[in-house]
Amino acid sequence: MSRFLLREGALVDGPRAIMPMNHENGGFDCPGCAWPDDTKGLHLDICENGIKHVTWEMTRKRVGREFFAAHSVTELSEWSDYDLENQGRLTEPMVYDPGTDHYVPISWKDAFEVVGSALRGLDDPNQASFYTSGRLGNEATFLYQLMARELGTNNLPDCSNMCHEASGRALHASLGTGKGTVDLQDWESADALFILGVNAASNAPRMLTALAEAYRRGARIVHVNPMVEAAATRTIVPHDFTDMALFKATRTSTLNLQPRIGGDMALLRGMAKAVLEQSASDPKALDQVFIDRHTTGFEDYRALCESTPWSEIEDQSGLSRADILKAARVYSEADRSIVSWCLGLTQHEHGVDIVREIVNLLLLRGNLGREGAGPSPVRGHSNVQGNRTCGIDHLPTDAFLDRLAAACDIEPPREHGRDTVRTIPAMHNGDVKVFVAMGGNFALAAPDTPYTFAALRSCELTVQVSTKLNRSHVVHGRRALILPCLGRTEKDHQRKGVQSTSVEDSMSMVHLSVGMKRPASPHLLSEPAIVAGMARAALPDSATPWEWYIEDYDRIRDTMAEALDGFEDFNRRVRLPLGFRIMQPARELVFLTPSGRAKFSAALPDVIPAPGTLALGTMRSHDQWNTTIYSDNDRYRGIKNLRTLVFMNRADMRERGIADMGPVDIASTAKDGSRRSLSGYLAIPYDIPRGCAAGYMPEMNVLCALSDYSTQSDQPIMKHVKVTIEPAA
Predict the structure, then answer these.
(1) Is the peptide bond before 698 cis (omega within 30 degrees of 0)?
(2) HEC sequence for 204-271
(3) Can you tell me the distance from the alpha carbon of 532 to that of 558, in angstroms, rounded to the nearest whole number?
(4) 462: β partners
């Protein structure tokens, strides 16, 4: 499951499926990344970050009533985020006592009543908001959104609002489906793979196996990222024991391109322009039959590409025409191409346009609806895609609500709800009074950290369903609950026996996961049980059989089969080896767009920073998973014991009089003109394009104003913060 650095630039896959696979009851699904399971039953389909994630959850350390009696919230708020999580697993429900500034024990019954009475006492159900992290399984997800909608609100912000919202909106607009169309078998048969804005070594480590195998069979692999990450060089795959013994690395790329931050769309436009220019002398450069039969808007798109000068494409991308033509040549010479991307493309003002440009490029050569070709977004969390599929959506369609109403005999609200960037100001001004979070660390994951902290503290009640202590437990409302849940590694005992939950990976495969370990505490409840307990307390007269559902999760799945497209015959199909794949209409060339065809799109934005300004992208270190920090090291980038840093181009440093490892002050300017700053950071020279800089989240989230969100996707612009960096005063 892991990728260890054996020598410079060489990565190794190491241990994922720690638990044995049982096709009847399901195997164990790592709560880390959402890369699909190997289709051939690979036993070492695991990675280093998966090991870290699982062992972090399975720690023997415990946080119980004695710990909270010894430490006030004021004291804990001064602790580092690493120290908070490193205390271990939460063991029993706790409630904040404002008189003593301590969390104190509370029974589950009383905890549920605290939640229920707060929700029943609201003047309007829209005064509550229900946040979801991507770790929540499908069954708990379905019950959670059902509870919110039976209460009368669509306020269902989730982590996707901050990560892949742009992908979903772009794919919906272009293809009529919000997901990628490819599966792992397509990766195994593609002639060319384009990997954009993805640091696979840290965020989707098992992708390295697919890249190494693709290289070995002769596929061409193009990595596009402002920083050449470790995954874009070579890897040692542990499934090949000879390579392991000989420390033999396999290359994972044939071409690396470093556009400026935000310059990916101009690169893609240049590739499309090159393909169109080639078509003037080579009729096979375009799949004209596919274009005529399955698309709309092509002529307008062709005209726009032809009228866009190469000089503009070079300026906006930060790449030379020669380099862009290299990528275009790989694309035009490949019969089957996949384009894959992650947050490096989505967390921009124009994130939707970038993803739509990916689709434009794929449509030109008919790279859709056939083996080895198509769009492939990489979800970086275990079940964020399943959360959306199973109803966590603040903008639900009427069709979804109609089917939910029929299956569950409720009248769901039709008014759209609040997403993440609208929930935070609503909490701040009192329009949202109760905030419930299923997993995650909302206080640190959200942008504009001081404002988000103030918003949480303005709530009448905050509820955190968690496995370990984090910042969101010490930045809380006037009343606060910590409700500890089972981890995915642990056995979930209910009345009808040990239960399994299902998850959906990045490529729409749904499979069961069952824990194998003894729970960290006898006082923990499962996430479905916690949702059901809150729902019954908030809706005492509800006809929904909350308690009956929890006795046997097959009952939840039977209702999901009625309510959700693609989940028909759920209980049988999810027990098949490797589960089942939710059908993607666009893969079958069925486009649920107004025209019934795939749609070309057009715009090319200006991403060049103003003079004296840099474009800053926030990112994870290698020893980090979302807001969880395992250590202050980032070995693939050569960093040890340091997180308060900014990576810069050496020429940009010289221009500003900044020495290597010199202290700097960083200031950002928001769309509304307001400024935010960080001091005490060190500047690290790095191979990154001029005009660009990079540093770690969540520490740098303070620089991203809440108002700086994309008008296309409503995502915070975490990858394109406008900053000035100067030597420390």
Answers:
(1) yes
(2) CCCHHHHHHHHHHCCCEEEEECCCCCHHHCEEECCCCHHHHHHCCCEECCCEEECCCCCCHHHHHHHH
(3) 17
(4) 435, 480
Query: 663 near 680, Cβ under 8 Å?
Result: yes
Distance CA 347, CA 162 (A): 8
450-461: per-residue pLDDT in tens?
999 999 999 999
Token pair, residue 637, equals 């980038």
Token readout for 436 is: 């419930």
Which of 134, 267, 251 has the alpha carbon at shortest distance from 196? Answer: 267
648 φ, ψ to 5°? Answer: -135, 155
And the tokens for 71? 């430490």
Q: 675 has which bridge partners? A: 669
**Cβ–Cβ contacts within 10 Å for residue 35, how many?**
28
CA gap 617, 597 in Å, rounded: 35
Neighbours of 415 (CB within 10 A): 9
- H-run or E-run covering 338: strand 337-341
Q: Is the pTM of this model over 0.85?
A: yes
* Spans of the chain below 70 pLDDT: 1-26, 28, 32, 41-46, 234-249, 380-381
Structure tokens at 142: 């379905």
**Collapsing DSSP states into helix, strand and coil, what is residue 490?**
strand
Residues paired with 463 in a beta bridge: 436, 481
Structure tokens at 158: 């989730």
- What sign has the CA pseudo-torsion 693, 694, 700, 702? positive
- Tell me which DSSP letter residue 468 carries: B
pLDDT in tens, 678-725: 999 999 999 999 999 999 999 999 999 999 999 999 999 999 999 999
* Listed residue (27, 10, 13, 133) closest to 578, CA to CA: 27
Given the structure tokens 């028909």, which residue do they identify? Answer: 568
| pLDDT more than 70, % of the chain | 92
Instruction: Count the Cβ atoms, other than its own, within 10 Å of residue 711.
Output: 9
